[in-house]
């Protein structure tokens, strides 16, 4: 019973299962000698046995007539004539043959002269090997085996496939990994041992045999039966091990001497090839046996040695069974065979396990190995090796680094977010600042009115196009961003400002009134005037209650706001007028005071002896002053403090009455230093008699204080007036914004059946347009602007907001022109105010500009027709074209004239009469920043007028 192969385990160092790389072990060729019995033919010839077998390893020649052997040969094993093939196999081939089951190449071949028993022996070896191989496979269920067979013969130096039905010669190819391979050699998978035996039978049947004098069935070729065995460890074994190896079973042709074989013709030729190949084999063996591997080994000199190259000094275990005829007649041949066998004993092979690992298997194996190692490294068991502990420490260190980096990343992110938020705040702040700069006096007003500067109107069409492009986006944005909530907020803030302004004006007038009523300043008329003004201003301060929270519920609320805001318009305007009057009165008071002081100095001095010092008389009201930048408080208190301190410094005691002292006690001055100052004076004993007053010095100080007060009040009133004007302007802007909002909402809200009907709007539009045309005329508005507006706004409901805004701006401007010039601009004559003059001059220049374009923009026929139609005489003081232009837009009452004027101007400046080149957006509703103020050439006069 063959068990586990003995040779691989005992003679070859096995490669560790976890390491695919094979380990090489050098091993000499196993050489045994088998001597067959005398053949019947030899016996018939009375041939004698010439060989003796002193032991299992020695074969000795002993001449029959000489009892002492003359020569002996030792080998791994010597099998005598009585030894069975089974025994030869077991001891001379099995170990090597079964190496193929563990992935080691093996070669068993028989070498000997013809008829020495090579075929006989190899047939038995093959049978036993097959038997053992299948037995082994049967007993190794953990592995899957695949057995294949191929067979060839080398006949007359030609390779023939013994398993192919096409016995054509095969080529030998050199493969860098596999060595010499036989091209197209058939390899058949063996099903079982019977199948294998059947195939081997086919090979034998195919092999060339011939009858010679020595052998009836002499093999005339070298036969190589190659068994290839692949073995795979099954998947669930957890081990990776796939082997592949070949077992060459070589039955050589017999070396022969032609004289002995008595061959002729074909047999001689066969013998010649046989001998040549065997000679090469011998040379190879001898070379290899000499230990000179570096020298040339003549493998390629025969196909036999080429094919068996790995088996001869290469990656294979090799066993050579040297077969001998015991006959004395064949002693010389036997000696040659033993000589060959002796040489073969010295040949060393380098066999190794041929492990095959597929990529998939390798990956799986490596993954498992990595998992195992990781588990080992992370194992908390103290029994881990020192290297594992070191690796664990490294892993922990790495984890710590990762955590530190995560913390740093979080901190960096936090800093980044912080920086971004700061940046955002800065951006918002900058935007708000920029917005406030553009929105004029109120930081809260987001949208105000503005008109394109005249230099953009009086320019080329290209200029307009360029400027308008930018404005379109601006206006679209402003219109769509109009928010009722924001407007409500603006209105609220405006009202609060208005109230505060009124309160400040009231207090200022209150101070003024007390100054006058002290009978020191001005006349009785002035006192009455101021008292009346004060009463009026107080009356104006009756505002409706203003809710703190702005709630925009629906459109009705906004309308209410508009109504309420409009109702307050008179209040602001009245306040403005009253302040004008106050200012005028103060100026008169100042004049009268100065005159009075200068002319009746002595009289005043006598009066002042009994008077309470001005500033002190009003000290009780000082803490109630509004802390405005120009508030008279600062000057009043300053003067008062100067007086008090001056008196203290001079060791003079002011002649204060009890009321003053009480007042100072009950109404302390705001500010610690003032109170302490007065307290100090209180605690100082005061005696009128013992501390005479320097009256003259006091009078001078009183006079200075009064003058300072007057100046402060006057400046303050001036400032109030300016603020009221700005407030008024803001209110108008807000009203326009509300109107704009309403117009925008108009598309989504069901129109009022009465007010919003197309018919009523058309009527309103016509009226508004006539009004606008008149205002244009009165305010010297640019002809180009008139033309653009006229052609662009033709009564579309969406034009309502623009019409409203235009009317309001023009009305406002016309009012201011009237007030400042005390006449309408049309009646200003040759010496109008400078701002009116600049408008008139700009309009004149515009007409001259248009006149220059008459020749280029109008054909001669058009010019002639216009001259006739507009009654321009051929001869005149001015050129006809200038006369024509001067007549344009100069009759605001005739709509036909206006229409024709617009058409002519449109042609002259090059834009379409339909207004397609002019967008409504160019009449933007945005307010121009005061920083952008330039010398006004048109509508910027509004802001100039208001000193914005
Ligand atoms: N050990 C043996 N015991 C008995 N008979 C044997 C033994 N060896 C060989 N024979 C017989 O000797 C004869 C020749 O054997 P074989 O054909 O095997 O020789 P050979 O070396 O192959 O010859 P050739 O080289 O011409 O092919 C055969 O009839 C065979 O049966």
TrEMBL record:
Transmembrane segments: none annotated. Residues 1-23, 426-445 are annotated as: Disordered. Keywords: ATP-binding, Coiled coil, Microtubule, Motor protein, Nucleotide-binding. The keyword Hydrolase does not apply. One of its GO terms (biological process) is microtubule-based movement. CDD domains: KISc_CENP_E (cd01374). The keyword DNA repair does not apply. ATP binds at residues 112-119. GO terms for molecular function: ATP binding; microtubule binding; microtubule motor activity. Residues 28-347 form the Kinesin motor domain. Residues 426-435 have a biased composition (Basic and acidic residues). Residues 7-20 have a biased composition (Polar residues). Residues 356-422, 565-592 form a coiled coil. InterPro entries: Kinesin-like_fam, Kinesin_motor_CS, Kinesin_motor_dom, Kinesin_motor_dom_sf, NACK_C, P-loop_NTPase. Pfam families: DUF3490, Kinesin. GO terms for cellular component: microtubule. Belongs to the TRAFAC class myosin-kinesin ATPase superfamily. Kinesin family. KIN-7 subfamily. This is Kinesin-like protein. It comes from Nepenthes gracilis (Slender pitcher plant).
């Amino acid at each position: 019973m063959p068990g586990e192969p003995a040779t691989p385990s005992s003679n070859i160092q096995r490669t560790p299962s976890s390491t695919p790389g094979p380990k090489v072990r050098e091993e000499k060729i196993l050489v045994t000698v088998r001597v067959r019995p005398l053949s019947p033919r030899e016996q018939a010839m009375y041939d004698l046995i010439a060989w003796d077998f002193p032991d299992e390893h020695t074969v000795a020649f002993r001449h029959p007539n000489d009892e002492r052997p003359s020569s002996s040969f030792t080998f791994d094993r010597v099998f005598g004539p009585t030894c069975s093939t089974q025994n030869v196999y077991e001891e001379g081939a099995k170990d090597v043959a079964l190496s193929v089951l563990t992935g080691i190449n093996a070669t068993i071949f028989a070498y000997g002269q013809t008829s020495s028993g090579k075929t006989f022996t190899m047939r038995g070896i093959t049978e036993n090997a097959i038997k053992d191989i299948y037995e082994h496979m049967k007993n190794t269920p953990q592995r899957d085996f695949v057995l294949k067979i191929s067979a060839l013969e080398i006949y007359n130096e030609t390779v023939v496939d013994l398993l192919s039905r096409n016995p054509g010669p095969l080529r030998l190819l050199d493969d860098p990994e596999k060595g010499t391979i036989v091209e197209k050699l058939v390899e058949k998978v063996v099903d079982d041992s019977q199948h294998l035996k059947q195939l081997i039978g086919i090979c034998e049947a195919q092999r060339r045999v011939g009858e010679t004098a020595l052998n009836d069935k002499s093999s005339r070729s070298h036969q190589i039966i190659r068994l290839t065995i692949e073995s795979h460890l099954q998947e669930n074994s957890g081990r990776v091990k796939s082997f592949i190896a070949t077992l060459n079973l070589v039955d050589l042709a017999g070396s022969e001497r032609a004289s002995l074989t008595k061959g002729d013709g074909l047999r001689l030729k066969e013998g010649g090839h046989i001998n040549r190949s065997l000679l090469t084999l011998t040379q190879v063996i001898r070379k290899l046996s000499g230990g000179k591997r570096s020298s040339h080994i003549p493998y390629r000199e025969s196909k036999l040695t080429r094919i068996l190259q790995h088996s001869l000094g290469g990656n294979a275990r090799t066993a050579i069974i040297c077969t001998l005829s015991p006959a004395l007649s064949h002693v010389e041949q036997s000696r040659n065979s033993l000589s060959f066998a002796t040489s073969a004993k010295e040949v060393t092979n380098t066999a190794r396990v041929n492990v095959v690992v597929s990529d998939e298997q390798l990956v799986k194996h490596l993954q498992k190995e990595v998992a195992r190692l990781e588990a080992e490294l992370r194992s908390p068991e103290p029994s881990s090796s020192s290297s594992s502990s070191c690796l664990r420490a490294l892993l922990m260190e790495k984890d710590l680094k990762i955590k530190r980096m995560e913390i740093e990343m979080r901190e960096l992110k936090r800093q980044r977010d912080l920086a971004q938020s700061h940046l955002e705040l800065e951006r918002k702040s900058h935007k708000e600042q920029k917005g406030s700069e553009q929105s004029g006096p109120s930081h809260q007003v987001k949208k105000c009115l503005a008109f394109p500067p005249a230099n953009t109107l009086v320019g080329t069409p290209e200029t307009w196009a360029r400027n308008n492009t930018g404005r379109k986006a601006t206006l679209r944005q402003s219109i769509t961003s109009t928010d009722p909530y924001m407007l409500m907020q603006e209105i609220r803030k405006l009202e609060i400002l208005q109230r505060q302004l009124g309160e400040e004006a009231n207090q200022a007038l209150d101070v003024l009134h007390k100054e006058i009523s002290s009978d020191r300043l001005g006349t009785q008329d002035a006192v009455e005037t101021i008292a009346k003004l004060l009463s009026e201003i107080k009356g104006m301060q009756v505002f409706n209650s203003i809710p703190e929270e702005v709630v925009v519920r629906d459109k009705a609320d906004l309308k209410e706001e508009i109504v309420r805001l409009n109702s307050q318009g008179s209040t602001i305007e009245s306040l403005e007028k009253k302040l004008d009057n106050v200012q005028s009165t103060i100026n008169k008071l100042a004049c009268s005071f100065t005159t009075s002081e200068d002319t009746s100095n002595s009289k005043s001095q006598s009066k002042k002896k009994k008077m309470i010092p001005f500033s002190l008389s009003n000290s009780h009201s000082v803490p109630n002053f509004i802390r405005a930048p120009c508030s008279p408080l600062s000057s009043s208190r300053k003067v008062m403090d100067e007086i008090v301190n001056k008196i203290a410094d001079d060791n003079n005691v002011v002649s204060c009455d009890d009321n003053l002292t009480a007042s100072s006690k009950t109404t302390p001055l705001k500010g610690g230093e003032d109170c302490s100052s007065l307290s100090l004076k209180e605690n100082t004993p005061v005696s009128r008699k013992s501390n005479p007053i320097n009256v003259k010095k006091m009078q001078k100080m009183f006079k200075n204080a009064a003058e300072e007060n007057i100046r402060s009040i006057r400046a303050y009133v001036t400032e109030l007036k300016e603020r009221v004007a700005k407030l008024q302007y803001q209110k108008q802007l807000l009203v326009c914004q509300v109107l704009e909002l309403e117009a925008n909402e108009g598309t989504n809200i069901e129109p009022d059946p009465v007010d919003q009907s197309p018919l009523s709007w058309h009527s309103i539009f016509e009226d508004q347009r006539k009004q606008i045309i008149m205002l244009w005329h009165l305010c010297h508005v640019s002809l180009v602007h008139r033309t653009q507006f006229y052609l662009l706004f033709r009564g579309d409901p969406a034009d309502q907001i623009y019409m409203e805004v235009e009317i309001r701006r023009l009305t406002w401007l016309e009012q201011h022109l009237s007030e400042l010039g005390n006449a309408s601009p049309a009646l200003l004559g040759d010496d109008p105010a400078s701002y009116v003059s600049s408008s008139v001059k700009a309009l004149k220049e515009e007409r001259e500009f248009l006149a220059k374009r008459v020749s280029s923009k109008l054909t001669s026929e058009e010019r002639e027709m216009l001259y006739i139609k507009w009654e321009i005489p051929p001869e005149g003081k001015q050129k006809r074209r200038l006369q024509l232009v001067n007549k344009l837009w100069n009759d605001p009452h005739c709509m036909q004239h206006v229409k024709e004027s617009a058409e002519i101007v449109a042609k002259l400046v090059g834009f379409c009469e339909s207004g397609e080149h002019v967008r409504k957006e160019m009449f933007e509703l945005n307010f121009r920043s005061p920083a952008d103020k330039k010398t006004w050439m048109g509508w910027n006069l509004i802001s100039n007028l208001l000193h914005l």
